[in-house]
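thread: overnight batch results

M.L. [08:02]
morning all. the overnight job finished for the chain we discussed friday. pasting input first so we're all looking at the same thing
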Amino acid sequence: MDGSHQLNEIFLDDVRVPARNRVGKENDGWRVSNSTSNFERSMVATYAFLRRQLDELTKLCKESKWGGEVLAEKPLVRDKLAELAIEIDVGNAFCYLVVWRQSKGDFKEAGLFAATVKVVSSELIQQFFHTACEILGMYGQVDDSRWAPLQGRFEKGYQVYQALTIGGGTSEVMRNMIASMALGLPRSW
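M.L. [08:03]
and the structure it wrote out:
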């Protein structure tokens, strides 16, 4: 959407990998791939990033005026910032639960929690940048201008992070995994 390169799709034909280069047992590739993906899906870095972005957005709101009133003093803005702070703190705690499960070798439980964290965090980061642009009004949509708050970071994030609900397992696939593996519901795929 923003002209940058984010996702890839690769097709390989007639590829042969020597048995000595195989990771895991023969025909066990899906389990190995899923296990390694669950480390990525813990999303700890995402929450650290969101906390830093929230701190900068809060600082900007304390220093910026709209209609003669400081943004941070507007009840609606304060409510939105507080809601984001709560969501980030809860998500961060959930991430550490995933990492703790992984450190204990409980990879099945950790995998289910990782899928949940992946869905929640990828949708939260989209919500964060949407809310930031909403708080900043028209200035939140400006990029590459002296009028762009924080060098247009919120405008760019609003576009770039749409890809997170696709990469690393789509939110729909993650929800299906959670439904079937954690809740015992019938598979829909």
